[in-house]
User: What shape does this take?
Amino acid sequence: MLSFGIKLILCPLAVILSSYIFPGIRYPFLYQPIAIGVVLAGAGTIIESAFLRRGTLWITTGVEFIMFALLIYFLTLAFRGADITFSAAILTAAIVIIIEYSIHRWLIRNRETLKSQK
Assistant: This one.
């Protein structure tokens, strides 16, 4: 549950930061990247609880990267006035996945995942 709390803060910040750094992203309202970040935090927590254990770090991270790129792209297009290119969605997912990778390593190292405790 601690990882969800961390993600709930860092994922929206990463999406907001990406919108300022990368061309091809436009969010007219602040709630839009925050909402996308919250969805990413939830999806990441679900994916890591299902797949993450010792030996699956890269597989879990890869699955999350693909899922995040698609979620960022399609969720952004669902917001009125927001716009994103697919390459910007991939770059944003790369920023978020760096955070996720760090969290995954910490969870495995501290045996915080359900699967690594068995």
The chain has one domain: 2-113.
